[in-house]
């Protein structure tokens, strides 16, 4: 047995060990505290004007951040980093402006990490930092950089960009210290996620701030900021920064430091970027693009268009033409997963061509892009700067070319000049010019889905020009739209009705996300209403043209709502110009030559045939049934004529036919005359039958007496006088083998054997006969009926069956 002192020994040992641990912990805490204080002192004393900012190691940064930067192989801060980081570390609000590709992301991520580190932020303190990006692509990229340079920190960080289940996302948000988000999705969480605590927020960052502050995001950002505490640090960064006082007050910025590192430089685009423009008619843009791609097969090219429809059409046609370089296309309407996958594939490619909308115009850091091509001119100079900024990043070389219609040249050059953009005109070499007009026309002619896409592309382009605010550059009247339609393979230019009103501008500035289904967080009403694929199909105006094949063609992961949204404020009128146009003028349909019109089953609605497939569909009774409407209830009279069961006359019509009494009298007279007429006919028939029977009976009697040959044996005899009571029974169905004499006679006149059907054979016939004999009910007539009562009894028996 262990003695008492032995027992006490391990206890004392345990206590000693515990104490040692506690001491070590408090020592560590003390040391951390001291180092934090030292860090804070270093920050306070750091004077960017005199201090060395040429190395990250010279900046007053915590060791986890410094290690993260070192591990990411960044040694020398860029200009914007060298100036913005120290100021932000000192707690200043910042308005940071620097050229594209100059390292703004790190300029705001480092202060974010440092702020939370110095505040010893834990997951129990709620959300400490919020970084807002205008697009999902940019948010993903920022998050990736954060995880790279923040890898030695122990903060929890999350990405909130939509496209995922809100509930799943919400569950994890409560534990996050840093969030990178898009405005709409974040607002949705702030409105609905109960565990998300933002009262403690330390720092708010707006990347591409001018974009986030503009009309498209206005309401979402304002509502989002409402949720945040006013006591916080705010950092705004962009390549095209504005100093609008209204924006600053909206964000409650306090005495912000404006850091514009390239303000005094000769150009507002990177020096290593060569910029060109070429003048090409709108109708030749696709030809020029094709020629350009063919001449640059060993390059990484990024091509910008003004809308998703343009992107899709150009992508589809170029894909069919196989220029000899991998092609990708990216637009806001694609599903999140596909967008990310395309972005990653293109980023990893050495030689490739990406057709895109402005969804990747800002911030996205594709490595080593050689050429930025702007097929559709940018809406303003800021957009131009951001687009071309996808190349020549961080001191690398890059080239850009802008396609301009001659009507756009003067206005656009004026705008570019005013913002210090050095751009030179170039011409396409004659031997490099290629025409794909014929191929495009053939493709579009053969493929209705492509034709549909072409008309959509046309409409969206015209619409985008119409919506442009800068009318000095964009003038719809100066564009040759017929030629443009022809270059898209269309037989004519669709006529477009533009909706009027303020909303157009607003919609134009809406981020695509706000218009698309997947991002319908912008419109909670829309979100609530669940629309199935079938709903969407029926909502489509061109359902018959938009086929499954089309869906496959565009690899359709697109959100159709985005498409619908465009059509919401644009009414497309189509013009009739066919040969056999019996369609009303207001039918609003374009009939390219060679199209036909087919009338609907009811003959009322004409259907326009512009393809073989449509013609086939219109000839299929089954498919056309859906246009036929519901069936009518009709009844057949004795003559087999169909009538509606009730037909209630209008009061007016009724009065026109005379007084009610007169009409009643006329009706009775008419009916009496009809009955009389029918009576005469019936009587004659009965008389005739009676005569026949009499003849037969006489013949039988003669045969029995050996005077005449055998004839049919009548079993029932009608009374001689008056009406035959069996005359009406004869028309009734008779069960089993029981038949009246009249029927028996009729049967004799008919062929004995029914004509064989193709599926019946003799054995089947036999079986039927046997079955009938076995199963059929036979009424035995024991005695010959004599009296009227006998006949009635017999008739009753027959009827009972
Ligand atoms: N200090 C640095 N040293 C080396 N490379 C850097 C440094 N800072 C940033 N970079 C690199 O420069 C590139 C551009 O950086 P970043 O994307 O932050 O530019 P940006 O200014 O945000 O551009 P944009 O205006 O287009 O959004 C990135 O590939 C990044 O890794």
UniProtKB/TrEMBL annotation:
Residue window of motif Q motif: 54-82
InterPro entries per UniProt: DEAD/DEAH_box_helicase_dom, Helicase_ATP-bd, Helicase_C-like, P-loop_NTPase, RNA-helicase_DEAD-box_CS, RNA_helicase_DEAD_Q_motif, SPB4-like_CTE
Top-level taxon of origin: Eukaryota
Entry's Gene Ontology molecular function annotations: ATP binding; hydrolase activity; RNA binding; RNA helicase activity
Family, similarity comment: Belongs to the DEAD box helicase family.
Keyword vocabulary terms for this entry: ATP-binding, Helicase, Hydrolase, Nucleotide-binding, Nucleus, Ribosome biogenesis, RNA-binding, rRNA processing
SUPFAM superfamilies membership: P-loop containing nucleoside triphosphate hydrolases
Domain Helicase C-terminal intervals: 285-444
Sequence ranges assigned to domain DEAD-box RNA helicase Q in this UniProt record: 54-82
Single biological process term from Gene Ontology: rRNA processing
Segments of this protein annotated with the region Disordered: 1-61, 678-781
Location (main, coarse): nucleus
Top EC class of this enzyme: hydrolase
Subcellular location: Nucleus, Nucleolus
Enzyme Commission code(s) on record: 3.6.4.13
Catalytic activity: ATP + H2O = ADP + phosphate + H(+)
Domain spans labelled Helicase ATP-binding: 85-259
Pfam families: CTE_SPB4, DEAD, Helicase_C
GO CC aspect terms: nucleolus
Designated name of the protein: ATP-dependent RNA helicase
PANTHER family xrefs: RNA HELICASE
Function of the protein: RNA helicase.
Annotated SMART domains: DEXDc, DUF4217, HELICc
Written domain comment of the UniProt record: The Q motif is unique to and characteristic of the DEAD box family of RNA helicases and controls ATP binding and hydrolysis.
Annotated Basic and acidic residues bias: 17-26, 678-689, 757-768
């Amino acid at each position: 047995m262990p003695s008492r002192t032995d027992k006490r020994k391990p206890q004392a040992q345990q206590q000693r060990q515990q104490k040692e641990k506690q001491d070590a912990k408090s020592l560590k805490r003390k040391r951390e505290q001291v180092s934090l204080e030292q860090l804070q002192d270093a920050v306070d004393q750091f004077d960017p004007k005199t201090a060395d900012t040429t190395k990250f190691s010279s900046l007053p940064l915590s060791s986890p951040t410094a290690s993260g930067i070192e591990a990411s192989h960044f040694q020398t801060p860029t200009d914007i980093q060298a100036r913005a980081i120290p100021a932000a570390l000192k707690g200043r609000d910042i308005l940071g402006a620097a050229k594209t590709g100059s390292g703004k992301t790190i300029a705001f991520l480092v202060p974010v990490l440092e702020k939370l580190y110095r505040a010893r932020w834990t997951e129990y303190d709620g959300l400490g930092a919020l970084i807002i990006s205008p697009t999902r692509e940019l948010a993903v990229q920022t998050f990736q950089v954060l995880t790279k340079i923040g890898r030695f920190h122990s903060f929890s960080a999350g990405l909130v960009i939509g496209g995922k289940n809100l509930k799943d996302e919400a569950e994890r948000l409560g534990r996050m210290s840093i969030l990178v988000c898009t405005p709409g999705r974040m607002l949705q969480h702030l409105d609905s996620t109960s565990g998300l605590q933002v009262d403690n927020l330390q720092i708010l960052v707006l990347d591409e701030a001018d974009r986030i502050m503009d009309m498209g995001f206005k309401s979402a950002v304002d509502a989002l900021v409402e949720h945040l505490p006013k006591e916080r640090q705010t950092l705004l960064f962009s390549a095209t920064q504005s100093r609008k006082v209204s924006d600053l007050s909206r964000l409650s910025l306090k005495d912000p430091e404006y850091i514009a590192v390239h303000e005094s430089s000769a150009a507002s685009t990177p020096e290593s970027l060569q910029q060109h423009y070429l003048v090409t008619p709108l109708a030749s843009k696709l030809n020029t693009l094709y020629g350009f791609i063919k001449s640059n097969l060993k390059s990484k090219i990024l091509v910008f268009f003004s809308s998703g429809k343009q992107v899709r059409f150009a992508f589809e046609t170029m894909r069919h033409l196989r220029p000899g370089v991998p092609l990708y296309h990216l637009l806001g309407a694609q599903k999140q997963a596909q967008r990310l996958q395309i972005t990653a594939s293109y980023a990893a490619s050495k030689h490739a061509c990406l057709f895109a909308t402005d969804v990747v115009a800002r911030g996205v850091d594709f490595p080593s892009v050689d050429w930025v091509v702007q097929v559709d001119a940018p809406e303003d100079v800021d957009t131009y700067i951001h687009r071309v900024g996808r190349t020549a990043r961080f001191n690398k070389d890059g080239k850009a070319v802008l396609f301009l219609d001659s009507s756009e040249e003067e206005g656009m050059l004026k705008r570019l000049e005013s913002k210090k953009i050095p751009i030179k005109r170039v011409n396409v070499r004659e031997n490099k010019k290629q025409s794909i007009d014929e191929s495009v026309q053939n493709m579009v002619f053969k493929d209705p889905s492509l034709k549909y896409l072409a008309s959509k592309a046309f409409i969206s382009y015209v619409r985008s020009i119409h919506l442009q605010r800068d009318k000095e550059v964009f003038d719809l009247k100066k564009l040759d739209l017929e030629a443009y339609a022809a270059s898209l393979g269309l037989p004519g230019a669709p006529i477009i009705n533009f909706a009027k009103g303020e909303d157009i501008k607003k919609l134009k500035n809406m981020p695509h996300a706000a218009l698309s289904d997947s991002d319908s967080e912008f419109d909670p009403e829309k979100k609530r209403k669940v629309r199935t694929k079938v709903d969407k199909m029926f909502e489509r105006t061109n359902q018959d043209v938009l086929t499954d094949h089309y869906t496959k063609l565009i690899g359709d992961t697109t959100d159709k709502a985005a498409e619908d949204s465009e059509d919401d404020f644009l009414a497309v009128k189509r013009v009739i110009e066919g040969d056999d146009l019996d369609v009303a003028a207001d039918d609003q349909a374009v009939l390219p030559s060679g199209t036909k019109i087919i009338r609907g089953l009811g003959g009322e609605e004409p259907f326009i045939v512009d393809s073989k497939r449509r013609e086939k569909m219109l000839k299929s009774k089954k498919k056309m049934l859906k246009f036929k409407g519901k069936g009518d209830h009709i009844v057949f009279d004795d003559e087999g004529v169909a009538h509606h069961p009730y037909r209630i006359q209008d009061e007016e019509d009724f009065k026109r036919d005379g007084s009610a009494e007169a009409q009643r009298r006329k009706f009775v007279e008419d009916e009496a005359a009809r009955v009389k007429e029918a009576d005469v006919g019936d009587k004659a028939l009965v008389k005739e039958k009676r005569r026949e029977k009499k003849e037969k009976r006489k013949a039988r009697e003669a045969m029995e007496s050996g005077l005449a040959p055998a004839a049919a044996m009548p079993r029932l005899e009608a009374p001689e006088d008056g009406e035959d009571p069996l005359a009406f029974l004869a028309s009734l169905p008779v069960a089993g083998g029981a038949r009246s004499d009249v029927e028996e006679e009729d049967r004799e006149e008919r062929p004995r054997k029914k004509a064989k059907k193709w599926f019946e054979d003799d054995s089947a016939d036999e079986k039927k006969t046997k079955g009938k004999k076995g199963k059929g009910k036979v009424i035995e007539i024991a005695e010959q009926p004599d009296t009227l009562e006998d006949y009635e009894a017999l008739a009753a028996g027959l009827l009972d069956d």
